[in-house]
Amino acid sequence: MMISESQHEKYLTRFTNGMLSAYADTTKNKGGLEQGFRPHELLEAALACCMNMSLRMNAEKLCIPLKEMKVQVSLNRENSEQSTFEYSVSFGESLLYEDEQKLLTALEYSSVRSTLSKPLAFKLINEKANL
């Protein structure tokens, strides 16, 4: 569970899981101070981190030597009917084509991607929650 708390600065928000925390904010043209991640960047980060971990876990499981790898995710919201997570993966070293394909196939089953691929619903569970 994540909790977000308003800060004194206009839209700056601290978010925490109780152990770690970071800040979110909005852009200056929307009244923010750009002192934290934008909320959509956090969606991108969640998917990118999960994909990165999934690739490394699968490389380990398949005994594929993977020393360095980078995942980049961008949320394209240009289409009003559908948002699209666009991603790229770069491997820091030369891998066999077949090993790259095995690892890239595993991305289709990463947990955050699976969650985001399902229909989402929103439910207020307590209007006056004492957080």
Automatic annotation (TrEMBL):
InterPro entries: KH_dom-like_a/b (IPR015946), OsmC/Ohr_fam (IPR003718), OsmC/Ohrsf (IPR036102). It comes from the Bacteria. Gene3D superfamilies: 3.30.300.20. It holds the Pfam family OsmC. This is OsmC-like protein. The lineage of its organism: Bacteria, Pseudomonadati, Campylobacterota, Epsilonproteobacteria, Campylobacterales.
